[in-house]
Amino acid sequence: EFKDVLDYDGIWIDMNEPSNFMRGQIPGCADTEINNPPYTPSISDRSLAEKTLCPDSKTYLGDHYNTHSLFGWAQTEPTFNAVKQATGKRPYVLSRSTFVGSGKHTAHWLGDNFSLWKDLRRSVIGIMEFNLFGIPFIGADICGFNYNTTYELCLRWMQLGSFYPFSRNHN
128 — phi, psi (to 5°)? Predict the structure, then answer.
């Protein structure tokens, strides 16, 4: 029914990791091996529950530990199909959370970066990596999302960003 109120070209799905603004849940994650594995990737605070659910949380498909990365992927195909059915047009879906091969149904952006020269450089690496993951329609927040940018940084980032497959200034 919404398409009859407002003609739209696409849908932007954000915060679909699932994410939250704390570690795990209240009163915290249980002290179990799945919540505290012997190896954790180099992520903030070295915790798999940082700004998301505890790894031992249950989902429809099993433990969050095993399904976290599939969460966004499981939203993009149904969204793509719903927009296609509602509009009768080729859908445009942009998702913050993706998985290998998600490019069949969605575009992606590299997330909330910073207005720093190192983030400009990292954007090139991220875009190339996501092409390898089967997500060719990819871009970064040009000029950075967090912090205030400088004239020189934003100018150079706009020049670089003109070559991104998905290009937008989000500062």
Answer: -65, -40
Catalytic residue among 14, 45, 112, 129: 14
* Spacing of C-alpha 17 from chain mean position: 7
Q: Which domains does the chain have, with CATH numbers?
A: 2-20+65-169 (3.20.20.80), 21-64 (no CATH)
Annotated active-site residue in 1, 7, 17, 112? 17
CA distance 103 to 171: 25
User: Where in 2-128 does DSSP place strands (E)?
Assistant: 11-13, 58-59, 62-63, 93-95, 107-109
14 given a catalytic annotation: yes
Q: What residue ranges of the chain have pLDDT lower than 70?
A: 42, 44-45
Is residue 129 part of the annotated active site? The answer reads: no
What pTM was computed for the model?
0.84
